């Protein structure tokens, strides 16, 4: 049998393909290649005993498995069965999306370059290269995606947004699509909106029991503003939706203004910021309209500008409960950001009742993590208790990334009389909050428990993780 690199269509024994259906080969990434010295050689992406047993039963001959990467085995399957190019492009698109969902990716990036197109999945917060396809294949795949997303396939010079519904094993998922013209063609990013948000509640989000009690006290209050801050991808929306589910009640009018609505919650009135050129509904115009709708609780997806900030703060002061998110590095910097937006100090201090500042750090895969000993100078630098910790490795259970999901690192600031006074001093420049870091304590705890690796801890402490 020749090397895998030299396999082409004319080397495949077509008679063997009549005994193994195309659907089976496509699904399990297997393909009978040919006979050699009384044995049948079969290309496989993953060599599994059950595949070999199935083939031995169907082909009635001894099987020799040959490992072939996904890209090549897929091409061989389509070439071998003579599948039409339209169906092949459909398969490339659907296979990539299904694979991303299998891996629990949050986003799919299609990135065109001079000779090929990289396809990367965002897994546990990092972009991982998963596929390469030709530019010719990509042109057809992009057209399919844009048609399904109700986007203009003829316009390749303008950024566009779209959305589609994807059937994943009878589970219908919303996909948000963004296209952007680059030097080598349109870059496409697909955000996968998982339906399992319905299963998430505050109790499942890694908050300590004591802090959960504090958050529930904030939820029980009738008025005031609660802000959740952190960089993009830090889980702010998940926390916010979990709180709204807890607030959801038949005797309350809960209204949101979002860009866009990410999770639909029955019983809550959710409004999308307009994406059209007229921009009929912005955060601040939508918020003004909501205030005329007799709301009890208002959720503003994000405070981005001065007008939205001022309206939200005044709503909280005048007896409404207001939730929102804001981009800052720490809980106390929320107050400085609002001051920069020209909100008056007394309104800031009096309106806010609590701030949840959070980050997500990659969780080590328990199946493959390895022991790691930190050097003495680093132990002193980071004031560590031990020298033995863990580092990533990589295995089939974590897609060879070394990580399995992410863990919540947070700081909770409650606005009691003592903290209000500290904030007043901080805003006037006479108090330094830099030593008050609940984030760091939680991060250290996870490091000691072997939940995160030293690299993740060091990145957090050194500040890289704070970059927005």
Automatic annotation (TrEMBL):
Sorted UniProt keywords = ATP-binding, Nucleotide-binding
Kindly list the GO CC terms recorded for this protein.
plasma membrane
GO molecular function terms attached to this record: ATP binding; ATP hydrolysis activity
Question: What superkingdom does the record give?
Answer: Bacteria
Question: Start and end of every Bacterial type II secretion system protein E domain?
Answer: 291-305
Please report which protein family the annotation says this sequence is part of: Belongs to the GSP E family.
What name does this protein carry? Type IV pilus assembly protein PilB
